[in-house]
């Protein structure tokens, strides 16, 4: 089992990144690939979770060990697979997800793709009261909402964000409802995705 991979980012797509380590390119699925930037001169450390199925072997990567740990805990909930867990983590506000679980806020949790009332209830039953020791660095700011920083953007970055939302499982209809609001802002791809996810789960 891999703990982490250290290498250079060679490619960023809406679903995954490619990390070069000693001449081997590893395809790694991440919650938000556009957090990573292609840079062949800087080596990055990415925490890895290896997911094995009968028909596939996939790698999932995270910036921090805490994100990886939360991902693994979400996978233990009946009804949540890797894609669903990535969509939850891609929201960019783990503290709000934890707050929703602690406060039994099913309405908030069901806004994520693939999470219905039954799965939301299961998340609460399985995880409430069990995340503080596992993901302690999210708890000090549990009730704070970070302000999305403004940054320069191009139409390409907006398009990349839309592709990433589709990769997470959101439908064209859902995305269309928030597109006009997104286009009013000048943000990076990562910030577009976070803003979109906040609106989609609102």
Automatic annotation (TrEMBL):
Segments carrying the region annotation (Domain III) are 154-202
Transmembrane intervals: none
Major location (coarse) = cytoplasm
A single GO BP term for this record reads: DNA recombination
> Mind listing the UniProt keywords for this protein, alphabetically?
Cytoplasm, DNA damage, DNA recombination, DNA repair, DNA-binding
Query: Can you list the GO cellular component terms from the UniProt entry?
Result: cytoplasm; Holliday junction helicase complex; Holliday junction resolvase complex
Summarizing the function annotation, the protein's role is: The RuvA-RuvB-RuvC complex processes Holliday junction (HJ) DNA during genetic recombination and DNA repair, while the RuvA-RuvB complex plays an important role in the rescue of blocked DNA replication forks via replication fork reversal (RFR). RuvA specifically binds to HJ cruciform DNA, conferring on it an open structure. The RuvB hexamer acts as an ATP-dependent pump, pulling dsDNA into and through the RuvAB complex. HJ branch migration allows RuvC to scan DNA until it finds its consensus sequence, where it cleaves and resolves the cruciform DNA.
Its domain description in UniProt is: Has three domains with a flexible linker between the domains II and III and assumes an 'L' shape. Domain III is highly mobile and contacts RuvB.
UniProt family annotation: Belongs to the RuvA family.
Question: What does the subunit section of this Swiss-Prot or TrEMBL entry state?
Answer: Homotetramer. Forms an RuvA(8)-RuvB(12)-Holliday junction (HJ) complex. HJ DNA is sandwiched between 2 RuvA tetramers; dsDNA enters through RuvA and exits via RuvB. An RuvB hexamer assembles on each DNA strand where it exits the tetramer. Each RuvB hexamer is contacted by two RuvA subunits (via domain III) on 2 adjacent RuvB subunits; this complex drives branch migration. In the full resolvosome a probable DNA-RuvA(4)-RuvB(12)-RuvC(2) complex forms which resolves the HJ.
* Protein name, UniProt field: Holliday junction branch migration complex subunit RuvA
Please give the organism: Heyndrickxia sporothermodurans
Source lineage: Bacteria, Bacillati, Bacillota, Bacilli, Bacillales
Gene name of the encoded protein: ruvA
